Amino acid sequence: MAAPDYSLLAGLAVAALFAGLLDAVVGGGGLIQIPALFNALPQEMPATLFGTNKFSSVFGTSNAAWRYARRVEMPWRTTLPAALAAFACSYAGAMAVTWLHPAMLRPLILGLLVGAAAYTFFRRDFGAIHQPRHKGGQEFAYALILGGAIGFYDGFFGPGTGSFLIFLFVRLFGFDFLHASAASKVVNVATNIAALGFFIPHGHFLPLLALIMASCNVLGSFLGTHLAIRHGSGFIRKGFLCVVSVLIIKFAIDTIRLE
Q: Which end of the chain has fewer CB atoms within 10 angstroms, the N or the C?
């Protein structure tokens, strides 16, 4: 940005605050922050806007992960291997963009989102009770597979990563929605840091704007984690269904436009 536009900065700051709040509960902060950046700064390169978004998000997500860790018994034996695998595989996902266009995945991702929403909606007890299913080597192996797959997806495509993580932690590991949301934040931090390892050295971010949005994103994450911890898994389940429904509509519209 050549000169500060205070109304523009204020609008993006508010977007970052709400993005941080949403992301801390169920993921999906990019649904707010990325469109806001593209609408406000159409003259900037997409890579610069994505880098600014990641810079802002990593602070809010890190704060949410820290706050969850203080209040929730974190399933570290599952979460840390998943985070490490996600960090490593996000690079592979980014490299895969060179030989396969991400838009080709839209119909598949749309189908997966519909399936996740339907499964969660019709299984009323889904994610209500925290009953971890795996132990030892099996838990470690499944965590690596989950983290690797999600990390690759986030590096390659990205939208809905937080929601997919929550769903898979509940479905595959038997977490409730509160523990799944907490674990997903740690994995999200890993994928965001991996992405920033590319964006920052190449100058693909707007430093002043990124810092302002990061501060607001952190504030939003404080509010979001407070709501999630106070109201528990039932509240997160409802938020999850709302976010996934919005993602389904967005993917459906984008897929139709491409046809």
A: C
